[in-house]
Amino acid sequence: MSRIGRLPVAIPAGVEVTVADGNVVTVKGPKGTLERALPTELEIKVEDGHVVVTRPNDLKRIKSLHGLTRSLIHNMVVGVSEGYKKELEVNGVGYRAQKQGKKLVLALGYSHPVEMEDPEGLESKVDGNKIIVSGISKEKVGQYAAEIRDKRRPEPYKGKGIKYADEVTTLRAMAASVDTPTAAGLSTEKARPLAAETPMRMPVKEPGPTATAMASMSDSFKSVFFRMCSTMGINVRLWVRPVS
């Protein structure tokens, strides 16, 4: 049997679970009521303070639904008794969140503030740079938190944006080229006249025996030689200058 599906779901004190026709499960608790229609292929019973889910056969689809159905019932029981919450963080200069009634107003670097209204049954709170989404439905809490994060996902260089509190983001190193004026420690204004006054000097390498021999070859032979090196993947760099 399914390792998850065969586990009974314990019903805590103050929680009531009823199963109606068509496997419509209703769970009532101190935080609210949840109702859901579950697959009719499975058998759901409430006995001895536990909810037990059994399956009639071992078909692949039935086995998949077995563990899923048990997990959904468990999430409903935990939701009405303890509730669910998801915590997000807003990072970035000028990035902030605030509540205006049932609206969550986000400043995320756009030309306009982003407004999101809390869905029915959910509540969002702002504590500094943290946004806390809470509710009794695990599915709805996770969906609303994902929609908030999607308004400005964390970028990979400085981590600016909205991320989950327990999310680990791997930051990339910003590549800096030494050929640029800013990488060399010079401002753009100072680098322009310097580049204009100082001509670029290419390194000169003394001719070796290969370069001396190549200088005496004909152009047609050189063309054939370079084509052969290119075909074999050999990178040939020759500095040829007249030899006195």
- Mean of all residue-level pLDDT scores: 84
Order of neighbouring strands in the sheet with most strands: 11-12-7-13
Amount of helix:
25-40%
How big a fraction of the residues is strand? 25-35%
Low-confidence stretches: 239-244
Q: What is the end-to-end distance?
A: 90 Å
- Strand-pairing-aware structural class: alpha+beta
Shape: elongated
**Secondary-structure element sequence?**
EEEEEEHEEEEEEHEHHH
Radius of gyration: 34 Å
- Count the E strands: 13
| Biggest sheet statistics | 4 strands, antiparallel
> Helical segment tally?
5
Describe the 3D structure.
Mean pLDDT is 84; it is low at 239-244. The protein starts with 8 loop residues before the first strand and ends in a 13-residue tail after the last helix. Strand 8 (96-100) and strand 9 (103-107) form a beta hairpin. The protein is elongated and about 100 Å long. The strands form four sheets. Strands 11-12-7-13 form a four-stranded antiparallel beta sheet, covered by helices on one side. The protein has a three-stranded antiparallel beta sheet with strand order 1-6-5. It has five helices and 13 strands. Helices cover 27% and strands 27% of the residues. The protein is α+β, with helices and mostly antiparallel strands and 244 residues long.
